[in-house]
Write a structure and sequence with these properties.
150 residues
Length: 150
């Protein structure tokens, strides 16, 4: 895997988010014109609104999943950490951060995204919501400390 591939995987999830946001926007227009559109498909207008409200959070979870999967790939690669174990995400970030000389602010920000993702998945209501763009930026910075390929 390469660092550029990781960036590309995260960018692809962002593109999916843009498509999904556009689809929600367009579906709202359809529902305005044909109020029964959702009902005929066993859906309610509230389902569409909830989808729109949760869209960015859903994609934060997705970009973090791509990020963590890439770190786990690096962890097990011959040029990476050469470990067979599967450490928890906190230890994974800390270990790779220490080995790659990630600056403390970048490590803190990557942990913030991890904690935000955990709050979304486990409680559904994080204290401090962050944008997909901000989370992506934090993860990109961490990934930039990885070697070009592994």
């Amino acid at each position: 895997m390469t660092r550029q591939e990781v960036f590309g995987r995260i960018r692809a999830v962002e593109a999916e988010h843009r498509v999904a946001a556009l689809a929600v926007q367009e579906l709202r227009l359809v529902v305005d014109q044909v109020p029964s559109f959702l009902l005929e498909r066993d859906l309610q207008p509230a389902d569409l609104e909830r989808c729109g409200r949760n869209l960015e959070r859903t994609f934060v979870i997705r970009i973090y999943a791509e990020f963590e999967a890439s770190l786990r790939d690096f962890w097990q690669a011959p040029r990476g950490m050469r470990r067979r174990s599967e450490p928890p995400a906190l230890a994974l970030l800390d270990s790779i951060g220490a080995r790659r000389g990630v600056d403390p602010d970048t490590l803190r920000d990557a942990h913030f995204v991890r904690e935000y993702r955990n709050a979304l998945v486990h409680t559904g209501a994080p204290a401090v919501p962050r944008s997909l763009r901000e989370c992506r930026s934090f993860l990109y910075r961490f990934v930039s400390y990885l070697p070009p390929d592994w």
